[in-house]
């Protein structure tokens, strides 16, 4: 979870993630974790800036050969 997603937007400082969306995200992550556990896997969940958290995870795991990501599209007014 990137803390920046829970701050205000660039325009008008509206929240990017409101209480309903946050509840949906938390329930979805919980359900995904439970589903993966039933299949013998797990889900790593971290809070922090992805550029920091991913680097730390790569260091901890040590055997990472690829990292895939997507970037949020921002509309410039």
TrEMBL record:
Tell me a GO biological process for this protein: photoreactive repair
Q: Does the keyword Magnesium apply?
A: no
Per the UniProt entry, what species is this protein from, by scientific name? Answer: Emberiza fucata
Q: Under the GO molecular function aspect, what terms does this record hold?
A: damaged DNA binding; deoxyribodipyrimidine photo-lyase activity; FAD binding
Fetch the InterPro entries from UniProt. Answer: Crypto/Photolyase_N_sf, Cryptochrome/DNA_photolyase_1, DNA_photolyase_N, Rossmann-like_a/b/a_fold
Does Metal-binding appear among the keywords?
no
Identify the Pfam families for this entry. Answer: DNA_photolyase (PF00875)
Keywords in alphabetical order, please.
Answer: Chromophore
| Domain of life per record | Eukaryota
* This protein's name: CRYD protein
The record, for PANTHER family, names: CRYPTOCHROME, CRYPTOCHROME DASH
Please report the stretch or stretches of sequence annotated as the Photolyase/cryptochrome alpha/beta domain.
1-77
